[in-house]
Amino acid sequence: xxxxxxxxxxxxxEGLPSSTVYDIIQARDGAIWFxxxxxxxxxxxxxxxxxxxxxxxPHPDVFVLHEDDSGKxxxxxxxxxxxxxxNGKVVISxxxxxxxxxxxxxxxxxxxxxxxxxxxxxYKYSGLVxxxxxxxxxxxxxxxxxxxxxxxxxxxxxxxxxxxxxxxLSLSKDxxxxxxxxxGLVERRKFRHPEWGETMIVPKRTCYGDRDSLTIxxxxxxxxxxxxxxxxxxxxxxxxxxxxxxxxxxxxSQGKGLFLMDNSQTREYEIFSKGIxxxxxxxxxxxxxxxxxxxxxxxxxxxxxWNYEIGEELSESLxxxxxxxxxxxxxxxxxxxxxxxxxxxxxxxxxxxxxxxxLGMDFFDNELYVHAxxxxxxxxxxxxxxxxxxxxxxxxxSSIFSCKRMLKYNYNVFSMAGSFGACLWDRNTNTIxxxxxxxxxxxxxxxxxxHQKNIWTISDRGIFRFDLETETLIPYVENISVSGIVQLDxxxxxxxxxxxxxxxxxxxxxxxxxxxxxxxxxxTFIKQLRKDKNGxxxxxxSVGLFRIDPRxxxxxxxxxxxxLISNLLTDISISGDQLCVSxxxxxxxxxxNESFRSKSKPQLHVNxxxxxxxxxxxxxxxxxxxDENDIEVRFIAVGFETPGNYHYRYRLSGLNxxxxxxxxxxxxxxxxxxxSYTLEIEVFDPEGNWEVSKAIPLAIALPFWETWWFILLMxxxxxxxxxxxxxxxxxxxxxxxxxxxEIKKFQQHAMTAQMNPHFIFNSMNSIQRFILENxxxxxxxxxxKFSGLMRLTLENSKKIWVPIDDELKALKLYLELETLRFKNxxxxxxxxxxxxxxxxxxxxxxxxxxxxxxxxxGLMSKEEGGTVQIKIDSIGEQFFCExxxxxxxxxxxxxxxxxxxxxxxxxxxxxxxxxxxxxxxESSTHFLFEVEDRIDDQGEIVxxxxxxxxxxxx
Length: 954
What we know:
By secondary structure, the protein is α+β, with helices and mostly antiparallel strands. Among the domains are: 305-390, Thrombin, subunit H (Beta Barrel), CATH 2.40.10.480; 603-701, Sandwich (Immunoglobulin-like), CATH 2.60.40; 732-950, 2-Layer Sandwich (Heat Shock Protein 90). Helix content is 16%, strand content 44%. The chain is built from 9 helices and 73 strands. Strands 2, 24, 25, 26, 27, 28, 29 and 30 form an 8-stranded antiparallel β-sheet that branches. Strands 15, 16, 17, 18, 19 and 20 form a 6-stranded antiparallel β-sheet that branches. α4 packs antiparallel against α5 and α5 (776-797) runs antiparallel to α6 (804-821). It is elongated and about 170 Å long. It starts with a strand and ends with a strand.
């Protein structure tokens, strides 16, 4: 039989680089390292990180690993290629070249030890080598084989095995351990034992030692020696490597399997019956790591859980009920078969056919009671049936009898509960003493005989008391589904609620109240409750086995990762120090006195940082730029009690006091404001505490616009700008006032210029001529128009802005007067764009001076007269005026003035042009003014064009 402790196997499928593992060690950060014939792997409980030839290893074969005080992982590689791994990178040792030169032939490193800058290497078939800090190699003993066993700050312990010509190793009667330092041999420690012969032939690599004891494994037997009292034991196995774990010893072998010796119980377990096994490591969580050649590595949990598997100890898979009494375990199956197994030897002691379906089993006084539908049987310890006929309750049809739970009421009387109700049965007389009426649609699930001999039964309808006087079930709490019931040492009664959680039942008040045992218990349906001899409550569920300490209200959940054969449990039984639970995959046996938790806590590490999605170094957290505020911190808890299955919580203290809970290996924060914070990360350890924690300071700098110097600078800047703006405003107001005064001045000049003295004089002469020539009607018309023009001119001159319609009226009157005076030699047109609103206002007295200039200097020089065209258009927020004439042009007009000896200049045009520029400047609009000759297709001058912009207000 192969009764096995819980273990996990790691192969190439799980991530190992090879099935041939040479060495396993645990680093200071808790990670497990594997040396194989295909490189090195680091395992953190979640993933394997691989280092091979492509990652820098000089050769894939790595035989030994060693971590120095600085955290470098040294690798003893084939062909003397010594290297180490640091910060995820492979570095070739500075000693590698010297070693390759020193050893002409292939040498295999078996042991590595560093003491400061001093390096010690033990080689297979090449002895012990010391390399000092200067790289000088000293061969300490090249004729012997050494294996490094013990290292320390002040001494280095090696075992020395003398080598025969046959290369087999021999031990003298006085076996000795030699201690060396950098100067050579320090002392030899001798161990003697009278059982040893003159010589003992042992295979290679068969020695194990520590500070307190020595173990020699030979080809035929092994000897465990204590140098203080020389105690030993012998096991006839073909072993060659061991690991000692408290009072237990793991024994490996060359082809004969793996064995476990428990010296405290003088028991031996055959874990595997064949194969090459080498125990390599006892880690901080008390797990034992064993290499199996050709497979990989096994990680055996501490000896808290032993599993019985289907096809080995168990006959079938569908386990329905179990019962444990002393060292006997009864396992019932759906088929009605029952195995009786010794938990000491894992051997079957009996085989029982109990019925069609095993509903319940109980061991009392070394007798087995079996409950099956329509059958109740009684057997002795080896499976012989003692009683087949059972006195059934009178109210019960025998075909539907089923008992769920049987408890001892007194020595010979038992309380039974099930679908039939409840009853008391006397086993001596095989009679029913008390019985209830049959329970209709209210099948009892469990019962409790309390300290006062009250019988409490539970069902999916509530909690009831079996009243023996009335033989009835009296309801105490109804309308609640209860599946488990147990009484504590302090007389409190706890029940498991089918809706989740544990409730306290108060018989005096006939009430229940929730028991606060944390969120895990509250949200879990615990099916059965049992109490052990220490007062600890145990409960089965679909997520594992609950261990509840009522005094401390402390809860531990034992799961598959702790060694259970399955989390989905179907039954439970406790006897003495042993507890047994069943599932569809088998049965797990547990010692209730085990802590189930190692003394070691998982190590919490921060292993990555991203800022705004980019990977950076962790030390950047202390000096973050203000816009580096999208933060992702990656972390991991390295431990092998529940590898890869830790719960975490984190918060950014100073920003949010609320914890964030997760199973992911990262904490994420977005748009974190500037400030100093502390990132707190905690691990929910297997004991149910948030104890393992890490606090990381984090600082995000203020944006430069929030720093004191920038605020001061901006204050000074605002003050200076305010002063400058104020001065500019004052200057602007002064300029505006000057501009307004100048505009008014030019407006008066324009008014004066508008009424050109020559025009007035000529107009008066024209009126006089019309009267003398007896053209009174024309004279009267001329006089009316002239007076109208004077009136409009005087009215408009009082305003800066006038509607464009008023300005055009004055312009038309002027043109009509000039037409009368020149007796129709003058033709004119005024075109105004439809886009122009007649109510839009333009500066007054603006267009007439340019029209007058065209008439007097362009047209009147021609005997036949000519035409003036005025066009006004709207572009954007301005008006544009175009004055066209078909006169003599600018050059001819200038020559005519020269012939007349006239130096007079059109003051009205120049004043108006200057006024236009000032108005544009005041309204902050673009000023456009163009004067050009009009040219026909033959290149002849045919007139003049004046084009200018006019500022507008709505």
